[in-house]
Amino acid sequence: MKQDAAQNLTQDRRIRSLLLALAFGLASHGSTVSAAGADEFELAELSLDDLLRIEVVGATRYAQPLSDTPASVTVIGADELRNQGYRNLGEALSTVRGVFTSGDQNYTYLGVRGFNRSGDYNSRVLLVTDGARRNDALFDQALIGNESPVEIDWIKRLEFVSGPSSAVYGGNALFGIINLVMLDGSDVNGTRVSVDAGSGQSRRVGVVAGQRMEGGGDWFLGFAAYGAEGKDRYYQEYDSGPSDGWARGLDGEHYHKIYGKLRLGNWRLLGSFSTRDKAMPGAPFGTVFGEPGSEILDRSSLLELSYDDTLSTGWQQHFSVFSGAYLYQGDYRYVGGVANRDEAVADWSGLNYRLNGTAGESHRWMLGTEAQWNTTLKQRNFDREPYTEVLNTNDPSSTFGVFVQDEWRFHPQWLLNLSLRHDKHSDYAAIISPRIALIYQPDRDLTLRAAYMHSYRPPNAYERYYVDGVLQKANPDLDPERIRSVELAADVRLGRSGRAGVSIYRNVIYDMIGEQLDANDGMWAYANLPRVRVHGVEVDAEHSWSGGYVLRGSLAWQRSRLSDGGSLKNSPDLLGKVVFSMPLDSRWKLSGQWQGMTSRQSKSDRVPGHGVLNVVLSSAPLAGWGEWSVGVYNLTDQRYADPASSAFVQDSIDQDRRQIRVRWQVAL
What is the distance, to the nearest Å, from the Cα of residue 369 to the centroid of all Cα atoms in its chain? Predict the structure, then answer.
């Protein structure tokens, strides 16, 4: 044990040294920009507006220059999404400053600014595709791994808005917004087919097709099917029985997804369907280890009809109606052959209306209202043979919100963003969420921002009403959790094609919802926990050169404090990332990412820090051969783990070692 602790300490010190070296590199970035122009990496002749004047949608729900946003926004464009070989949304998000992911071989969980609580199914982050909300109505979860309803191949631009955003989005927008701008038919103008094969006997086929039609219409369709046998996984905690700690042939995964949209004039119809099943090798929730029969199914769908128009006054209006559904089904096998089934069914529908435009020369207003009716929030748990019911509950709810936002440029160099939202949940008192952001732009190369934000999240039906008879009991008396946040940020342009930024933030979370063990009965239940304080600093920089050389990196430091003086679990002090892309010749390109983090507190120990390098070799279209890419993930075959939740006997879950994926894509 002492030897393991010493090795972990040495590993953590090594990671800290690498991250400090990254910080030094980011700090010295500005001083090296001007010198680069004399060598072979001559700066590209970019417009002064190419970087900070990029337009984004996620921060305010309408297009605005990146330099005018009231929150810190990271943008990942189509080129990076393709060149880096990201296999799912979570892998792309993990390269964002201050963001990290963890996994338990069932789902992928998103951590933001040091916060990634066990048992939190990404309910504190809002996922949006082309303006449509994608969190389900029962767990409020934003699915980001292979379980996500969205494929990387369908995304044109990823925007991550850091910090609370309930002032314009309502609940769930506690720590950030994942806004996905999806491909249109005009971005494809034809059909592309991709075929993947990789480690774990994985295989995938994907099709994207689309066209801009005569008369201004547009259609897009994306389809993907995936299957993998996975790998045999070893768990030390079970190395005392007939399995020798090995779960063999119990890691399979399959999914099918389809996404489409049709635009005719001012009308747009959007539809999405996905289904994914996954075996559970780690024996969660006390299931029998090493035997088949424990697996999960996630199925989601969404249909939205929207109308966009410009009024005679010049103001723009948006109206949409939507309907969504989600099914979770878990089969759990226990000792003695007991087969238990867990089911969650959600159906919801709603509408929203927004109106935005200018009033005078200095004000841009947005007014809006949203309503959602969660008509079915059903949870069941029962033993199958003989049938024994543990849980059968349906707890419908509804939400209604109105909001207003004013972007006031009261001076050529000063911009004030004021946002206010009133939300009413059917089970709780109304709540007000404000946001105030003051932006100063003394010149075209520097932007300074100060922001004060409130957000909230009502507890979901799973947290309030779920009972399994094994580990968890209900707590219908949960109250909403709230956050107050202050952030100071600066963004500076470096030369013609570089930029750097820094953010300093402080978050205070009240009535935080988290798992708590009841010592009287040994059961877990969700409870409102004492106040949590989190503060941190994030630094990032990016640069591009002529010929296709691209480099970006970030370093994030954070510190959390609980009321008892402790710190949050699964919360690294330091995160560092480097993302690069470079041409090897006129046909081939090398891209990759290095991501590192320091140690994290688990249930009973500390999980060591780690650094992982992924590289992708990709080709331009080759005459008659299509496009090829080879990705090697965890190139150096690092052994590392993520903290496990209370659902597992294990204190931590080992993550994948080296993996390979080969992709072929052809345009038809």
Answer: 25
d(CA 503, CA 419): 21
Report helix, strand and coil shares of the chain as percent, to nearest 5.
Answer: 10, 55, 35
Question: Which SS3 state, helix, strand or coil, does residue 10 take?
Answer: helix
Dist CA 46 CA 112 (whole Å): 32
Q: 240 Cβ partners below 8 Å, 6+ apart? A: none
- Count H helices and E strands in the chain, helices first: 6, 40
What is the distance between the alpha carbons of residues 58 and 161, in angstroms, rounded to a whole number? 7
Please name which of 150, 157, 159 lies closest in space to residue 222, comparing C-alpha atoms: 150
User: 596-613: per-residue pLDDT in tens?
Assistant: 999 999 999 999 999 999
- Angle (nearest 5°) at CA 367 between 362 and 373: 160
Buried b (16+ CB within 10 A) or exposed e, 328-351: bbbbbbbeeeeebebbbbbbbbbb
Which of these, 34, 56, 42, 39, lies nearest to 544 by C-alpha position? 42
Maximum C-alpha span of the chain:
78
CA angle at 91 for the pair 86 and 95, rounded to the nearest 5°: 105
With beta carbons less than 8 A apart as the criterion, state whether 431 and 402 touch: no
What DSSP character marks residue 531? P
Rounded CA separation 47/585 (Å): 26
Stated pTM of the model:
0.93
State the amino acid at position 506 in one-letter form: R
- pLDDT tens digits, 522-539: 898 999 999 999 999 999
pLDDT of 26 over the 70 cut: no
What average pLDDT does the segment 373-378 reach?
A: 98
C-alpha dist (Å) from residue 491 to 164, 306, 410? 19, 35, 21
Q: How many CA atoms lie within 13 A of 632 on its CB side?
A: 9
Return the pLDDT at 419: 98
| Non-local CB neighbours of 197 within 8 Å, separated by 6+ positions | 203, 204, 661, 662
201: left (phi over 0), alpha (psi -120 to 50) or beta: left
Tokens of 303: 């249909």
Dihedrals phi, psi of 97, to nearest 5 degrees: -60, 135
Q: How far apart are the first and last CA of the chain?
A: 59
Domain extents for the chain?
A: 192-667
CA–CA distance, 115 with 124 (Å, rounded to integer): 10
Torsion of CA 621, 622, 625, 630, to 10 degrees: -70
How many angstroms separate the Cα of 201 from the Cα of each of 179, 253, 496, 616? 32, 11, 45, 19
pLDDT at 48: 36
**Residue 389 to residue 395: CA distance in whole angstroms:** 17
Residues whose CB falls within 8 Å of the CB of residue 567, separated by 6 or more in sequence, listed in order: 559, 560, 561, 601
> Which residues are 507's β-sheet partners?
485, 534
- pLDDT range class, residue 46, cuts 50, 70, 90: very low
Q: How far apart are CA 117 and CA 17, in angstroms?
A: 27
**What kind and span of H or E run contains 169?**
helix 166-169
SS (H, E, C) 232-298: CEECHHHCCCCCCCEECCCCCEEEEEEEEEEEECCEEEEEEEEEEEEECCCCHHHCCCCCCCCEEEE
- In the three-class reduction of DSSP (H, G, I as helix; E, B as strand; rest coil), residue 27 is classed as helix
Question: Quick check: 477 and 465 in contact, CB under 8 A?
Answer: no
CA distance 638 to 596: 11
User: Considering the domain 192-667, what is its CATH architecture?
Assistant: Beta Barrel (2.40)
